[in-house]
Amino acid sequence: MSELELGSRSSWLSREDLDAARDRMPVLYVHAIPVRVDHAGAVTSVGLLLRAGDHGTIARELIAGRVFHGERIRDAVLRHIEKDLGPMALPLVPVSPTPFTVAEFFPTPGVTAYHDPRQHAVSLAYIVPVSGDCSPQADALDLAWVTPEETSDPALLADMAPGHGALLRHALVHLGFDV
Amino acid sequence: MSELELGSRSSWLSREDLDAARDRMPVLYVHAIPVRVDHAGAVTSVGLLLRAGDHGTIARELIAGRVFHGERIRDAVLRHIEKDLGPMALPLVPVSPTPFTVAEFFPTPGVTAYHDPRQHAVSLAYIVPVSGDCSPQADALDLAWVTPEETSDPALLADMAPGHGALLRHALVHLGFDV
Amino acid sequence: MSELELGSRSSWLSREDLDAARDRMPVLYVHAIPVRVDHAGAVTSVGLLLRAGDHGTIARELIAGRVFHGERIRDAVLRHIEKDLGPMALPLVPVSPTPFTVAEFFPTPGVTAYHDPRQHAVSLAYIVPVSGDCSPQADALDLAWVTPEETSDPALLADMAPGHGALLRHALVHLGFDV
Amino acid sequence: MSELELGSRSSWLSREDLDAARDRMPVLYVHAIPVRVDHAGAVTSVGLLLRAGDHGTIARELIAGRVFHGERIRDAVLRHIEKDLGPMALPLVPVSPTPFTVAEFFPTPGVTAYHDPRQHAVSLAYIVPVSGDCSPQADALDLAWVTPEETSDPALLADMAPGHGALLRHALVHLGFDV
Fold first, then answer.
1. D77 CA to chain C: closest CA distance, Å?
2. Is the distance from CB of A69 to CB of A10 less than 8 angstroms?
3. How many Å apart are CA B165 and CA B141, to the nearest integer?
4. Which CATH superfamily does the domain covering C3-174 fall into?
5. Considering only CB atoms, which residues of chain A are within 8 Å of chain B?
6. Residues of A in contact with C93 (CB under 8 A)
7. Phi, psi of D14 (to 5 degrees)
8. What are residue C31's DSSP bridge partners?
9. The dihedral sign for the CA sequence B162, B167, B173, B176
């Protein structure tokens, strides 16, 4: 959910139009947590992007972005995964549209567990097994695969972009891990 | 999800602004299915509104409406229930933000099971037990409580507004009924 | 959930032991609905087994069976899929242990939507994408892939084993289909 | 899930019968997390029992216990809540049978996040709003209401019975808190 994604990479709305719409309605997002699974479907690792922010900062992120007008949620999830992991990732987008959670991002901190200074965004979050070759695309500097246990490392969590750490922990708890 | 709700009853956006935003982004909605439960939490009846539409039509509807900018989902659910059932309904809005389903309404029929000729709307759907006195408000003509078994009556389903019948059936199946 | 599965095919309990245990505690089951998906994760078809019952009857069934003592739920799901679809089915067992529904089967009809004259069984139900070659094994006579739309055919539903039709419909509704 | 619950308080199976059954099949449990909610359904506090164990230990626990043969899951949840919180708690058992998670307890540590040295138990976990007067019953020494924020206190988590801390954290994350 970087500024870049919402600005130059988004072809359907100009920056001005998006800013105007953002002030009027909650913006619908999707978050995807890419995972590797073993033969029995148990998650063995989670994919985290390393991305450069606007002001020289570098942060670990999940995959996230807007749902476009006229686009199905599952197509938005697929588009954002391919945008960040490349065309050979072979993601399996969940069969059901029900997300494992809904994350409500508010410009004011403390309303919910999630905060986004730029906007009121509501994100549907999905866990997405990928079985192919993943390579970071566009402005992603790196893609790291970490084990569920490693995600509770305070150093890793400190590197997560705002809101992404909470959502990562939620995903792992939902998967049955105690992190 | 009547025109009225999106027009005159919505104070945060002018009709022109809303029409403009609708053409640019999916509009975030909530649907609420009000239910009566017994002492063990089993649903005994479902509340359906009878509402007059724009062109002299009358249809049975669930409770539905937009999420406003800056509004939590649970506050939107509460607002729409109070708007339709009155201030004494004593709803118990679900403790978790995860909906039982996400209904994607497209202007073009056939993209998903849901269709809305006016807009691309994405609705988070919740089942809401109410324990107080419910009285239809505003433009709702009547409120009928029907048993889960009665909801499979073809005559009742034929009276449901577009999309509302499918969502009602989904809710009942989610509750464990075979309708 | 045929007698055979609970009898001769189950090596961990003798028929007598199982009958004794069945009279004392609810028996934990899993149901799996095998599906084929397209590139965006949307379900294109559902796999139904044709199985011969004890008394010369033939019925369409989902995949189902007991969870063994000491066995993880995901290993039970995998075991029953391989038992019915063969070792090359390449199932993707869901990443989360949360089922899409819990089906409670009672010996007395009418307690819930599910009925099993032999026992009180509680089944956790999962939708499982399979990407490999499926061939019916053991006592399954055939495996048919039907589209979501075809599952609402009354003739097909009439062929479903008791309880399996309701669970199939629940799965499709959960997937976002209006059947 | 104390020994007492499984022994003297359980009238349907003798201790010997239960021990025999436990060696043969996974035992079906329910866990209930009692909560207080505000007018919009947001959780304001969580109820934790203080219970004396077999060996002079004292631990904080959630509500838990077996599902009896012939008993619906929602009736088991209700029975265990009334057993621990008294007959005036006015619980609202969830309308849907789908749990927020399934906790698999194994005698061997490390198979899953949950461990029970006595048995292989599979527990369906539910969050249950209570609106009445709660008073600890039977062998519960105390009932404490803690805020969601307080549940992340390491001292409190250290007092939780094995497995109960992980399940409490899972419940809070499911509710949208970042603990």
1. 14
2. no
3. 19
4. Nucleoside Triphosphate Pyrophosphohydrolase (3.90.79.10)
5. 12-13, 17, 21, 23-28, 66-73, 97-102, 104, 106, 111-112, 120, 122, 124
6. 40-41
7. -70, 160
8. C64, C125
9. negative
pLDDT tens sequence for chain A (179 residues): 433 333 333 345 566 666 777 778 999 999 999 999 999 999 999 999 998 877 778 899 999 999 999 999 999 999 999 999 999 999 999 999 999 999 999 999 989 989 888 899 999 999 999 999 999 987 788 999 999 999 989 899 889 988 899 999 999 999 999 87
CA-nearest of B24, B137, B124 to B87 is B137
Angle between helices D164-174 and A164-174 (to 10 degrees): 130
**Interface residues of chain B, partner chain A, Cβ below 8 Å:** 12-13, 17, 21, 23-28, 66-73, 97-102, 104, 106, 111-112, 120, 122, 124
Q: Say if strands B43-52 and B58-61 run parallel, antiparallel, or are unpaired.
A: antiparallel
> Global pTM?
0.91
Q: Which residue of A has its CA nearest to B24?
A: A69
Eight-state DSSP code of residue B68 = P
pLDDT in tens, D97-126: 999 999 999 999 989 989 888 899 999 999
Helix (H, G, I), strand (E, B) or coil at D22: helix
Residue of C nearest to A129 (CA): C95
Partners of C92 in beta bridges = none
Q: Are C85 and C92 in contact (CB under 8 A)?
A: no
Question: Quick one: which of C76, C75, C168 has its CA closest to C114?
Answer: C168
Residue C4: CB atoms within 10 Å? 15
A177 contact partners, CB below 8 Å, separation of at least 6: A43, A148, A149, D113
> By CA distance, what is C44's nearest residue in A?
A95
CA C129 to each of CA A38, A91, C92, D93: distance values in angstroms, whole numbers, following the listed order: 15, 13, 6, 32
Residues of B with CB under 8 A from a CB of C: 101, 104, 112-113, 166, 169-170, 173-174, 176-178
**Cβ neighbours around A61 below 10 Å, total:** 23
Look at residue D147 and give its three-state secondary structure. Answer: coil
Q: Is the ipTM of this complex over 0.90?
A: no
Instruction: Round to whole Å and give the CA distance between A35 and A33.
Output: 6
Q: Is A124 exposed, middle or buried (0-12, 13-18, 19+ CB in 10 A)?
A: buried
Torsion from C-alpha of A73, A47, A38, C125, nearest 10 degrees: -30
d(CA D146, CA A100): 26
Inspect the interface and report whether the beta carbons of C37 and A95 lie closer than 8 Å.
Answer: yes
- Residues on chain B bordering chain D, Cβ-to-Cβ distance under 8 angstroms: 35, 37, 39-43, 72, 74-75, 77-78, 91-98, 100, 127, 129, 174-176
Q: Report the candidate in B106, A95, D133, D150 with the shortest Cα–Cα distance to residue C92.
A: A95
Instruction: Nearest chain A residue to D104 by CA: give it.
Output: A176
